[in-house]
Amino acid sequence: MDSLLLGILGLAMAAVVVVLMLGIGGFAKGGEFNAKHGNKMMRLRLLFQFIAVCLVVLYVYLRNQGG
After folding, report:
1. From the record, what ranges are coiled-coil (predicted)?
2. Phi-psi region of 17 (alpha: psi -120 to 50; beta: other; left: phi over 0)
3. For the chain, what percent of residues have pLDDT higher than 90?
4. CA 17 to chain centre
């Protein structure tokens, strides 16, 4: 169970990094992409960060229950 949760947590953190890089790239380039998708990328990053933090809390909780 621990390895599955750690795998999902790793995927969630990778998703945060990917969306963050896309947002930074769009912001640096500016133009139409940033005007159209900049706010959406920020909201998506916040959602993925929330999910990743919840998974970290769940992992720590489950580890403490077993020991």
Report:
1. none
2. alpha
3. 67
4. 6
